[in-house]
């Protein structure tokens, strides 16, 4: 039974930290068969990302664009691999507040802009059995 008070609609994306973005894109596109739908450098996070569509969800490949980005530090510490899981929610602020009131440690005090026009907030892995969680609200019309 759930006590969460927010609307969880989908796994939005599984994010994977990689050193060679083009090589990783080629693998997920050509070997797994996922479709590339978006590529964007997110300067505030120091990353370049590629989204590959898998049904209603995405694989998000992330690589650092500068040495002091969190993803660069992650790669140094832990190597390539699963970086975070994005849960799609209908209301990011409500989801963040619900998780915080349930005792989860938020990284973002308030929701902020994510890639491709989404609104996002991160929750610390210490609250989630070692996995960084991203709450993702789609803002696309229709
Ligand atoms: Co993400």
Distance between the ends: 31 Å
Taking Cα atoms only, what radius of gyration do you get, to the nearest Å?
15 Å
CATH homologous superfamily descriptor: 2,3-Dihydroxybiphenyl 1,2-Dioxygenase, domain 1
Number of domain units: 1
Summing up helix and strand content along with how strands pair, one would put the structural category as alpha+beta
- Work out the number of β strands: 8
**What's the CATH topology name?**
2,3-Dihydroxybiphenyl 1,2-Dioxygenase, domain 1
Beta-strand proportion? 35-45%
The CATH architecture can be given as: Roll
Q: Helicity range of the residues?
A: 10-25%
Concise synopsis of the structure shown:
The protein is 21% helix and 39% strand.
Detailed description of the structure:
It is a single chain. This protein has 142 residues and is of the alpha+beta class. The protein has a single domain, classed as 2,3-Dihydroxybiphenyl 1,2-Dioxygenase, domain 1. Helices cover 21% and strands 39% of the residues. It has 3 helices and 8 strands. It has an 8-stranded mixed β-sheet. Strand 6 (112-113) and strand 7 form a beta hairpin. The structure holds cobalt (II) ion.
Summarize the helices and strands and which ones pair or pack.
Elements lengths: L7 E10 L3 H11 L3 E8 L4 E8 L2 E8 L5 H9 L2 E9 L2 H10 L10 E2 L5 E5 L8 E6 L5
Salient structural properties:
142 residues; alpha+beta; 2,3-Dihydroxybiphenyl 1,2-Dioxygenase, domain 1; binds cobalt (II) ion
